[in-house]
Amino acid sequence: MASQQVSGTGTKRSVRTKINPYEMLLQQLDLVREQTDIPAGTWEILRRAERALEVSLPITRDDGEVEVFTGYRVQYSSARGPCKGGIRYHPAVTLDEVKALAGWMTWKCAVVNIPYGGGKGGIICDPTRLSERELERLTRRYTAMIFPLIGTMRDIPAPDVNTNSAVMNWIVDTAGLLHGEPVPGIVTGKSIELGGALGRREATGRGVMVVTLGVLQRLGIDITKARIAVQGFGNVGSIAAELLAKQGAKIVGLSDVSGAYYCPTGFPVDEVLRYTATSPGHLLAGYSARGVEEITNDELLTLDVDVLVPAALEAQIVTENAKDVRAKVVIEGANGPTTPEADLILAEKDVVVVPDILANAGGVVCSYFEWVQNVQCFPWEEEETNQRLGRVMQRSVDEVWKLAKERNVSLRLAAFILAVERVAQAIRLRGIFP
Ligand code: GLU
How many other CB atoms are found less than 10 A from the CB of residue 387? Predict the structure, then answer.
């Protein structure tokens, strides 16, 4: 696609276990339910998406043939504010996946306490099979079809797996044309020239770094002695690896859809980034350096490291490989990378898992800053964005950590309790219409 690197390029979905992400979300909610006294009726609200739209998307391919794609936009909750969440282009997108991702966005925005609900969108497509012009036509058609749902105070899309600022630029342009005036706050993750926030591209990876530092410090692990493996070298994994390496950590494992690589002495991440800037598909394939060996995706996930950062797709740490995970800490850069069963296995092994809704929230926090700047027509300096992002992430780690200690529960359960109770409280305060 475009010359920019696509966001969140992940490692191949596990073929072993077919997992329905929405079932996973419901299982997670059941665990939270045991820990709270939220009324039964509110649980019924929390378990469902408010609204789901399926759209049919015909485009003319470059060869003149018409091909019809399917897309979705799900608004899971608007109890705490406008719905917020990215758009994913992937062949494995399903309505249930988009619903789950929209639900996770709801808890994510609540756990970091930004005034948003949760939403998500997706198109079933393989963007590597589409030319840039085809991708533009598909994006503009999708924008037109979900236009009745989105809006600056209604539902604000953003990048997710395989979408980037170029895609967001087409969305903001199409939405502005349909609206009759520019609507910069209708989407985040845009190019700076169109109202994007300085620092947004790096924000999810930066958040992963801040959370990792906060958790390692609490566990008494020195970052400069930490060995880290990162699964996925897209927008999240590559930047997290780069920033963690800058903090002195040794990045010994890296992977993307093209393969996984091990370098016991630590990858020169800057050099790897220079390689993927121009490599075919911006992939790691073909990268070679002294001491680097190719391994399997499973070997990467089970490397003998201090920290494992799964930053690709959901359901990567599953029943079959969880028992072999040797990391002391798992920082979930991706959404839903650990299944609930695998989570139990990791807990038995005393692996500290920092859940996705906290670990990767840096992206949406920065999206919120972008939106605030758009609404106020007042751009900030990058330093201000980074400082505020750091503060929100540190405060959130602190709150989740304290609750986990108080209730003697995992960080995941603590984050979910905090988030779900905040959403439940908003539902209670609003009352039920009519
Ligand atoms: N797609 C990102 C996520 O899953 C960012 C969403 C946003 O910025 O709205 O958190």
Answer: 13
**What is d(CA 21, CA 18) in angstroms, rounded to the nearest whole number?**
9
User: 11 in ligand 1 pocket by Cβ < 6 Å?
Assistant: no
User: Which residue matches tokens 């044309």?
Assistant: 177
Give distance in angstroms: CA of 348 to centre of ligand 1.
31
**Which 3 state secondary structure label does DSSP give 120?**
strand
Kindly report the backbone phi and psi dihedral angles of residue 202, in degrees, each rounded to the nearest multiple of 5, phi listed first.
-90, -5
**pLDDT tens, the chain, 434 aa long:** 333 333 333 344 444 456 899 999 999 999 999 999 999 999 999 999 999 999 999 999 999 999 999 999 999 999 999 999 999 999 999 999 999 999 999 999 999 999 999 999 999 999 999 999 999 999 999 999 999 999 999 999 999 999 999 999 999 999 999 999 999 999 999 999 999 999 999 999 999 999 999 999 999 999 999 999 999 999 999 999 999 999 999 999 999 999 999 999 999 999 999 999 999 989 999 999 999 999 999 999 999 999 999 999 889 999 999 999 999 999 999 999 999 999 999 999 999 999 999 999 999 999 999 999 999 999 999 999 999 999 999 999 999 999 999 999 999 999 999 999 999 999 999 999 99
- Concatenate the DSSP letters of all residues of 124-187 into one string: E--GGGS-HHHHHHHHHHHHHHHTTT-BTTTEE--B-TT--HHHHHHHHHHHHHHHTS--GGG-
Distance (Å) from CA 301 to ligand 1 centroid = 24
Q: What angle do CA 244, 246, 250 make, to 5 degrees?
A: 60
Q: Give the nearest ligand 1 atom to 366 CA.
A: 8
Of 179, 195, 89, 190, nearest to 135 by C-alpha is 89
Distance from C-alpha of 17 to C-alpha of 75, rounded to nearest angstrom: 27
340 lines ligand 1 (CB under 6 A): no
289 C-beta neighbours (distance < 10 Å), count = 13
Q: Does residue 85 line the site of ligand 1, with CB under 6 A?
A: yes
CA distance linking residue 272 with residue 279, whole number of Å: 10
How long is the chain?
Answer: 434
Catalytic position from the list 120, 190, 250, 328: 120
Whether residue 335 has its Cβ less than 6 Å from ligand 1: yes
Domains and CATH numbers, the chain: 51-189 (3.40.50.10860), 202-359 (3.40.50.720)
- Catalytic site residue 120? yes
The encoded tokens of residue 154 equal 């209604």
What b/e string do you get for 402-431 counting C-beta neighbours within 10 Å, with b at 16 or more?
ebbeeeebbbbbbbbbbbbbbbbebbeeee
